[in-house]
Target: Phenylacetate-coenzyme A ligase
Amino acid sequence: MVDARAEGMAPERRRDLQRQRLRGLVDRLLRAGGLQAARLRDCGVRAGSDVDLDDLGRLPTVGKRDLWDHYPHGLRAVGAEDVVCVHGSSGTGGRPTLVPYTAGDLEVWAEVMARALGGAGATRRSVVHNAYGYGLFTGGVGVHHGAVRLGAAVVPVSGGMTVRQVRLIQDLRPDVLACTPSYAIHLGEAMAAAGVGPTSLRVGLHGAEPWTHGMRGQIERLLGIRALDLYGLSEIIGPGVACESLDSEGLLNVAEDHFYPECVDADGSPVPDGSPGELVFTTLTKTGMPLLRYRSGDVATLTGPAPGSPRTLRRMSKVLGRTDDMLVIRGVNVFPTEVESVLLADDRVSPHYLVVEDRRVAARAELLVAVEPMSDGIDTDTLRADLVLALRERLGLGCDVRVLMPGSVPRTEVGKARRLVRWSEGDPPLPGLT
Ligand code: DLL
Model:
């Protein structure tokens, strides 16, 4: 553990720390004025001492719309002179979300990302090949801060130029790969195509987009590494909000001393541990844009620490989907990740696929799934029929499967893979789909 005191703290002691930090946060928000202060006052909160962790549920939430409504400075809670950088995401529908960071926020970020790397087995001797995009996106810079804090050597290669990346991996012999899961597949395929054998890579930290255990298997086979999940969102800090460690049993340790997690249903009521719900985060220690009860839109489950692990942090599941990515097809709710788990359970299917919500007849949305065969010589008619059956069994829904020529689904070299499109009019989202 990078910070045994924080990661291994007794849960009751951590709860005291969280309570104290929550009160400090509420005082900071009230002092800063603005939207969150007004909402707190409307709830009868006059000072941090009025709140407790146990009644967090009665406090107001904030959401993406609030950030959009307050663009460009968002819910900044400090003077402009205290802001040292701005990050964000391009967002859906071209509406960016910008997040101001103070020097203190960068400290927190470096700390939680160093812990994430440490949990993956990285040390001062590690070389981290960082293929997350550098820029406004938090992936590249966030992993960078963590690697530097750990004392590892970071190769800030960013996204794209895959041939050069393969070369750098051979020459610099990194043990840690940091990139999106879809880029890990792309990189692995490029290495196989170039005849590059086993590399020095040992572990990967993958996130920024949803991916399933099936995709994990594909990455691990292709690259010969342990593939771990790294989660975060720019509104909260970026990567490092939660991360799998080698011993966390497939779940992600939440950095809950800095980001207090809740899991709620559509009405905002808490769901029990182990039940899926929307993750809500409170940034206990951030100062640039602190958020009280930010509704992330990400659906996952929460659970306690791994039994027997020195880490005592609560854990979250892989993200199952986003509330706004949930498709409702003939009354059945479907997340694209459920489709992915069915597809990748079949070793004839390549990890390049696209889920299309066909809304050309608005009153009757249909699910169309475009896949590519893993290799030549696969009987595509049988594959298609088998997938239709497997999807019907898993989702309880008939859908249309198209097996396309290899290479038809666009690869993502930079940024996040696009796994879901909504098709309401015009040309098909992929050539060959009609
Ligand atoms: O994607 C931060 C990040 C960078 C995380 C690199 C991990 C690695 P945003 O661009 O603001 O920030 O997008 C945040 O991406 O709300 C999720 O919907 C999705 N997301 C992030 N990590 C994961 C993950 C970064 N591990 C949004 N699994 C979040 C599934 C993820 N979805």
